[in-house]
Amino acid sequence: MDIRVGHGFDVHAFAPGDAVILCGVSIPFEKRLKGHSDADVGMHALTDAIYGALAEGDIGQHFPPSDPQWKGAASDVFLRHAVGRVAARGFEISNVDCTLICEFPKIGPHADSMRTVLSGIIGLGPDRISVKATTSEKLGFTGRGEGIAALATATLVKP
Fold first, then answer.
1. CA-to-CA distance for 104 and 133, rounded, in angstroms?
2. Which of 49, 76, 133, 143 lies deepest, with the highest CB count within 10 Å?
3. What is the CATH number of the domain that holds 114?
4. Distance (Å, rounded) from C-alpha 105 to C-alpha 30?
């Protein structure tokens, strides 16, 4: 069996707004995340984790931020592409794990909704999708409330 593991990382700064989109879920908040697309750090990190496991680069190589067609794009487009590459290469996704790093908004009340959204995109049961959060103990840019970071891991198998 061929087993591959990939890691992804993403970060976006806050900007004035009224909601953040995290793992496909819009969370009412006094700010939004700034980015070329919808700035969903969770989906971006997961997308990069999948591309990494396939050794196919990163999200920026597949969807360059210099290309205006991706301005404001919903991040599920990127994640769906990565999932399609998994199937095209004869792999299956075994599980994914995403950690959101922020002081706010609180992630816990939305984690199950995020897992459900990701389940529909990735085609895995929610029992194979982890979404969790941690703070940075008020240290660094996330601790100062300047933005949100995400780490993700994806495990792929080729039976």
1. 10
2. 49
3. 3.30.1330.50
4. 9
142-159 tens-digit pLDDT: 999 999 999 999 999 998
What is d(CA 34, CA 141) in angstroms, rounded to the nearest whole number?
14
- Structural domain boundaries enclosing 83: 2-158
For residue range 89-140, what is the model confidence (pLDDT) as tens digits?
999 999 999 999 999 999 999 999 999 999 999 999 999 999 999 999 999 9
Q: Are 132 and 45 in contact (CB under 8 A)?
A: no
- Tabulate helix, strand, coil % of the chain (nearest 5): 35, 35, 30
Do the Cβ atoms of 15 and 104 come closer than 8 Å? no
Helix, strand, or coil (residue 29): coil
Q: Give the CA distances from residue 56 to residues 5, 67, 81, in Å, rounded to whole numbers and listed in that order.
A: 13, 19, 12
Task: Report how far residue 137's alpha carbon sits from residue 117's, in angstroms, rounded to the nearest whole number.
Answer: 28
The encoded tokens of residue 158 equal 């080729």
In DSSP terms, 130 is beta-bridged to 97
Backbone angles phi, psi at 131, to 5 degrees: -130, 125
Count of domains observed in the chain: 1
pLDDT at 47: 98
